[in-house]
Amino acid sequence: MSYSNSRSQLDSATLNQQDNSVFNVEGVKVFYSGFLALLDVYLKIPEKQIVAFIGPSGCGKSTLLRCFNRMNDLIPGAKVEGRLNYRDRNIYDPKINSVKLRRQVGMVFQRPNPFPKSIYENIAFGPRSNGYKGNIDELVEDSLRRAAIWDEVKDKLKAKGTALSGGQQQRLCIARAIAMKPDVLLMDEPCSALDPISTRQVEELCLELKQQYTIIMVTHNMQQASRVADWTAFFNTEIDQHGKRRGKLVEFSTTEKMFSSPETREAEEYISGRFG
Ligand SMILES: Nc1ncnc2c1ncn2[C@@H]1O[C@H](COP(=O)(O)OP(=O)(O)OP(=O)(O)O)[C@@H](O)[C@H]1O
Questions:
Q1: What is the DSSP string of 207-220?
Q2: What are the structural domain ranges in the chain?
Q3: Fewer CB in a 10 Å sphere around the end CB: N or C, the chain?
Q4: Ligand 1, residues 62, 234, 237: which to mutate, most atoms within 8 A of Cβ?
């Protein structure tokens, strides 16, 4: 039920089981100004599941996460090679409209980053700018409800989003992403700036949201991965011939297997806290 980075080691049974995949990553590598930061990744992301990316600092988790909605395009010097199919289309095809892609593949960042606008406008602004034709009031309420924050904000929709607590701001940002009706949500350490109660609320929210969305989450918190993720990808670094560190996907399997009987020694050592 698991496989490691090398294509020759791919477990085809596992891959075939994931025929419902939303993304199929085929030999993706990422360079920053010519430096190979992430070695060829092969990975399938199953639909309506939560996939966690774990591994030590600098192993390329965020780099790969940003590939799924071409956020690396916005980093000067970043270059992505390989194929990354989103529902059978290579998103690195020059004909792909990356702005449209980012509507389908939304992102929630490490630090909550609400717009300096009202709670209502935080949700309404994006859809309205994109010509949303439906009832905006309903969309705002529905998005806030789905993000499990409606009851806390329904009486102060005109208040500034930035005046909410950190945990509420993060759920507001998730509501903002949901309002764009995405297919996939990318989350880059969404709880790292939150207290344990807010963290738990966001985790519970993710478990709710996976009924409708596919979620890919970078997390440093292994308990979090084991609590929420259906699948876990373990990344590590290796030293190249010039002494430079580069990231690689070491192992991908169900979370249950990753945390009970990982295939590789690297994953086993990381999970048992022996490094990282
Ligand atoms: N914008 C950038 N410009 C240049 N190099 C970058 C950039 N972002 C990341 N890198 C490099 O790419 C490699 C992978 O970084 P990345 O942030 O993806 O790792 P990570 O696993 O998410 O780390 P962390 O857990 O510390 O956030 C590192 O060597 C890093 O220095």
A1: HHHTTT-EEEEE-S
A2: 2-95+105-113+182-271
A3: N
A4: 62
Distance 270 CA to ligand 1 centre (A): 19
How far is the centre of ligand 1, averaged over its atoms, from the C-alpha of 209 (Å)? 28
What does DSSP assign to residue 243?
Answer: S
CB 2 within 8 A of CB 253: yes
Atom 16 of ligand 1: nearest residue by CA position: 60
Helix, strand, coil percentages (3-state) for the chain, rounded to 5, are 40, 30, 35
ipTM value > 0.95: yes
pTM of the shown model: 0.91
Kindly state the percentage of the chain with pLDDT values over 70: 93
Mean pLDDT within 155-179:
95
Per-residue pLDDT band at 4 (split at 50, 70, 90): very low
Instruction: List Cβ neighbours of 182 (8 Å cut-off, separation of 6 or more).
Output: 103, 104, 105, 106, 213
CA of 16 to the centre of ligand 1 (A): 31
- What CATH number labels 2-95+105-113+182-271? 3.40.50.300
Among 222, 254, 224, smallest CA distance to 56 is for 222
User: Given CA atoms 172, 177, 179, 182 in this order, what sign does their dihedral have?
Assistant: negative
